């Protein structure tokens, strides 16, 4: 079986395992969703109404039957209906997921464009003034929480300097320039810490590669520094950098809550918070499974990139 096929089977198994664990955990949480939905102002709902709602939502079925229905729906892309307004969950996820993916993707792009070249330059000037300055800035960026960065960006860039809008969302098709303007600050806020991570990993990886024998041999032969960096250093240093970027982007898929809140960006994370507060477990299940599946998919893509960057991975 080929490398890609093996990794694909492992990824499918991981998605199934995560979906099953999330289903069980949600159903182990104390409380009756039907009773919670019908409760108003702390007044206990009518038991007959609770039982009718449980039957309509399938909550009175055995757990194994609910699990089978749940898996069958996932295979068809059907996440069920919201307990709050009976709106199809798949439609809401399909609406919000691209917004979060766009936010995370833009942040990742900014982080790579900043962290990768600056980390390489710092490694090539290790111990020098430029290296110390860049490392200090990276340490500062890592120490500042994302909500502080977001709040300062709104206060300084939006309210005082009025360079960019303070927040909100406009569809790309409706107004491309305003859409990009509204995307810039939340993506940049996420990219501050992420670019510092990429910088530090790149610097460390390049320094490690520079000490390898084949690089030293190329230097001894008088190979131009630019050719050494292009042929021997960058390619070999990319593997840990790709790993870190993939892991952080996967984490950001469900971790952009504060940024989406600060900038009023209607993505998937805000939808997840609303669903948890309402204890709308079908929504929570659907969102968590989608985020987990994307995380697994991202790691699958990274495995394929490894095979391209280092062919030895395919035979490991």
Provide structural commentary.
- It is built from 13 helices and no strands.
- The protein is an all-alpha fold.
- The chain folds into two domains: 3-89, no CATH class; 94-315, Orthogonal Bundle (MetI-like fold), CATH 1.10.3720.10.
- The two termini are 13 Å apart.
* Main beta sheet: none
User: In CATH, what is the class of the largest domain?
Assistant: Mainly Alpha
Can you say what the CATH homologous superfamily of the largest domain is? MetI-like
What is the arithmetic mean of pLDDT?
Answer: 82
Strand and helix order? HHHHHHHHHHHHH
Our count of domains comes out at 2
CATH fold title of the largest domain: MetI-like fold
How would you sum up the global shape?
A: globular
Helix/strand-derived category reads: mainly alpha
Helix content: over 70%
CATH A-level architecture of the largest domain: Orthogonal Bundle
Per DSSP, the total helix count is: 13
The radius of gyration over CA amounts to 24 Å
Query: Termini, distance in Å?
Result: 13 Å
- Low-confidence segments: none
Total E-strand runs:
0
């Amino acid at each position: 079986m080929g490398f890609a096929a093996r990794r694909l089977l492992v990824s499918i198994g991981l998605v199934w395992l995560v979906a099953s664990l999330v289903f069980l955990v949600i159903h182990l949480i104390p409380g009756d969703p039907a009773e919670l939905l019908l409760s108003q102002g702390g007044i206990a709902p009518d038991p007959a109404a609770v039982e009718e709602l449980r039957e309509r939502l399938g909550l009175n079925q055995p757990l194994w039957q609910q699990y089978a229905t749940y898996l069958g729906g996932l295979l068809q892309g059907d996440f069920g209906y919201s307990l709050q307004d009976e709106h199809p969950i798949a439609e809401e996820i399909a609406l919000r997921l691209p917004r979060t993916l766009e936010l995370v993707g833009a942040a990742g792009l900014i982080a790579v464009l900043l962290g990768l070249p600056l980390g390489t330059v710092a490694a090539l000037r290790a111990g020098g003034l430029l290296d110390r300055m860049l490392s200090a800035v990276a340490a500062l960026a890592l120490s500042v929480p994302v909500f502080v960065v977001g709040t300062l960006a709104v206060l300084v860039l939006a309210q005082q300097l009025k360079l960019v809008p303070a927040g909100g969302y406009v569809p790309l098709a409706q107004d491309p320039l305003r859409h990009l303007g509204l995307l810039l600050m939340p993506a940049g806020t996420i990219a501050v810490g992420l670019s510092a991570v990429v910088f530090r990993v790149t610097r460390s990886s390049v320094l490690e590669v520079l000490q390898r024998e084949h690089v030293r041999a190329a230097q001894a032969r008088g190979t131009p520094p630019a050719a050494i960096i292009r042929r021997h250093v960058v390619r070999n240093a990319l593997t840990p950098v790709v790993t870190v970027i993939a892991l952080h982007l996967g984490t950001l898929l469900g971790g952009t809550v504060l940024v989406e809140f600060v900038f009023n960006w209607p993505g998937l994370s805000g939808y997840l918070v609303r669903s948890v507060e309402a204890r709308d477990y079908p929504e929570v299940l659907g969102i968590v499974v989608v985020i987990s599946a994307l995380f697994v998919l991202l790691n699958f893509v990274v495995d394929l990139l490894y095979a391209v960057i280092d062919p030895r991975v395919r035979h490991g």
